[in-house]
Design a protein that fits this description.
- Its EC number is 3.5.4.16.
- This is GTP cyclohydrolase 1.
- GO terms for molecular function: GTP binding; GTP cyclohydrolase I activity; zinc ion binding.
- This protein has 189 residues and is of the alpha+beta class.
- It has two domains: 41 residues, GTP Cyclohydrolase I, Chain A, domain 1 (Orthogonal Bundle), CATH 1.10.286.10; 134 residues, GTP cyclohydrolase I, C-terminal domain/NADPH-dependent 7-cyano-7-deazaguanine reductase, N-terminal domain (GTP Cyclohydrolase I, domain 2, 2-Layer Sandwich).
- 39% of the residues lie in helices and 25% in strands.
- The protein has seven helices and seven strands.
- Helix 1 crosses helix 2 and helix 3 packs across helix 4.
- It starts with 5 loop residues before the first helix and ends with a helix.
Length: 189
């Protein structure tokens, strides 16, 4: 994949500043276009990554009980407005045939998927599908809770409103008791 073109981004930011009536040559804004370009390189770093690589290494451990990593902080950029949304992801799975992933790998997948222009719904689904495809678990459940700046600072102006999305696969879909157990653990403070 092509590298992020920081010079092109900086030029575009300069044009945006001019378009809103600002002087991009004033002292406080002189370095802003390149700062924004470097920030975009960071917040869109997932565009160059395949999140499934984090599951290339798995461990054999005879454990076929629930694994849940909750409160994985993430941030992303709304693809409709290019403003941030941020929150936490909760990722659960039931290993099968002793195949378990390193716990940090779950967080890395969330990071890689969220670091691109995104929709919360797509992050949720992509994390779940990646885990199902690469780990072949008995089931996966992914729940994201996020606050969207496109709802907070513009439009409807509702700070604090949270959006919750979920993706439920395999055993979690067919077993209400199991799904309830995960939700209870997620909501436990």
């Amino acid at each position: 994949m092509e590298e992020i073109n920081k010079k092109k981004i900086a030029n575009a930011v300069r044009e945006i500043l001019e378009a809103v009536g600002e002087n991009p040559d004033r002292e406080g804004l002189l370095d802003t276009p390149m700062r924004v370009a470097r920030m975009y390189e960071e917040v869109f770093s997932g565009l160059k990554k395949d999140p499934s690589i984090h599951f290339n290494t798995v461990f054999e451990e005879q454990h076929e009980e629930l694994v849940l990593v909750r409160d994985i902080r993430f941030s992303s950029m709304c693809e409709h407005h290019l403003v941030p949304f941020f929150g936490v992801a909760h990722v659960a799975y039931l290993p099968q045939n002793g195949r378990v992933a390193g716990l940090s790998k779950l967080a890395r997948v969330v990071d890689d998927v969220s670091k691109r222009p995104q929709l919360q719904e797509r992050i949720t689904t992509t994390v779940a599908e990646t885990m199902m495809d690469k780990l072949n678990p008995l089931g996966v459940m992914v729940v994201l809770e996020a606050e969207h700046m496109c709802m907070t600072i513009r439009g409807v102006n509702k700070p604090g409103a949270k959006t919750i999305t979920s993706a439920v696969r395999g055993a979690f879909r067919s077993d209400d008791k199991l799904r309830s157990e995960v939700m209870s653990l997620i909501n436990h403070s």
